[in-house]
Amino acid sequence: MARNFRRKNRIRAEVNLTPLIDVMMSLLAIFMITAPLLTTGIPLTLPKGDGKTIEGQEKTLDIGITKDDKIYVGTNEVQMDTLVGKVSAIVAENPQINIIISGDTNSSYGRVIEVMALLRTAGFTQVGLKTDAKIMHDAAAKKRK
Description:
This protein has about 140 residues and is an alpha/beta fold. It has helices spanning about 1-10, 20-35, 80-95, 110-120, 135-145; strands at about 60-65, 70-75, 75-80, 100-105, 125-130. It folds into two domains: about 1-35, no CATH class; about 55-140, Nucleotidyltransferase, domain 5 (2-Layer Sandwich), CATH 3.30.420. It has five helices and five strands. The N and C termini lie far apart (about 80 Å).
């Protein structure tokens, strides 16, 4: 009878995983809700393109042109006459950076070309245009059918 008494009072060495799972699910829900809100920048509607990506996306300088033809370097608005100086300072710190122009669909074509020409004449030869590739992929899929 003494043996049965010892077995009943034995301490169990188990880890209760229920609270740990609850905490992890709560954190997952928080990250899923906040992750889309962390993207920063200016709101642009990009024109459609061929869908080819540029290698080294983490090394790009994004120049945005809004529908009312305002120019942004990153999230900072700049004037046309200070654009080259700002870009030159950034490129001096990182010579391997790619310059990408993101023009809103409703911005004037002339303003996008004007910015691109200004950068090219200032000596920046690696200037690209950012587009939204979803429409081109859809059109290519329809063409294959």
